[in-house]
Design brief:
Blueprint lengths: L2 E2 L9 E14 L2 E13 L4 E9 L2 H13 L2 E3 L11 E5 L2 E7 L6 E2 L2 H10 L4 E7 L3 H13 L4 H8 L3 H5 L16
Parallel strand pairs: 8-9
Antiparallel strand pairs: 1-5, 2-3, 3-4, 4-5, 6-7, 7-9
Length: 183
């Protein structure tokens, strides 16, 4: 499971602008423009966060987004250069599927998903966005998917079995269809 990172001081964070939206408000004297910036930050070693900043100028909105992202960091379990297992999530009208890939495959993902996974440090993954491709919803769906990732050790602990049984063996116990199921 993903864990919230409390200290951001020791981390060397890289930021990536996912989306910059210009908004306008019509007032008596004309139009007033504002900017909203969606930013992701990460250390390329399993820590990632996102933030939304709004301001009258683009560079201030981006700076606010970076600060918001630094306050919203999570440690995600990774398996070498990929994710531990397949995960599929739905956030609003966006469906997202993340699949682990063999080393050398590369990061096959579009737009917002790619930005999040790059700053996270994932190099080999297959991603597919189905439905709404609104960058804000895609980033939130990506984070929802990343929060569902578990490493093998936590799965073994939760199920109260050894790591070898998580990967190779069948958990000993009564199974439907086995000879001792009705005994």
């Amino acid at each position: 499971m993903a864990r919230r990172v409390l200290t951001k001081d020791a981390l060397a964070l890289e930021d990536r602008l996912v989306w910059l939206n210009r908004t306008s408000k019509v007032v008596k004297g004309g139009r007033r423009f504002g900017f909203a910036a969606l930013v992701v930050v990460g250390d390329r070693q399993g820590v990632v966060g996102f933030g939304l900043g709004k301001a009258a100028e683009a560079n201030i909105a981006i700076a606010k987004g970076i600060e918001a992202a630094k306050k919203n960091l999570y440690r995600i379990p990774l398996r070498r250069t990929t994710i531990p297992h397949v995960v599929s999530v739905k956030y609003e009208a966006t469906r997202l599927i993340l699949r682990p890939a063999a080393p050398g495959t590369g990061l096959i993902a579009g737009g917002a998903v790619r930005a999040v996974l790059e700053v996270l440090g994932v190099q080999d993954v297959l991603a597919k966005v189905i439905g709404s491709s609104n960058p804000h919803n895609v980033v939130r769906a990506t984070f929802k998917a990343l929060m569902e990732l578990e490493d093998a050790a936590s799965i073994a602990q939760r199920r109260n079995i050894s790591l070898q049984k998580v990967f190779h063996g069948v958990y000993e116990g009564t199974h439907q269809g086995s000879d001792n199921a009705g005994a």
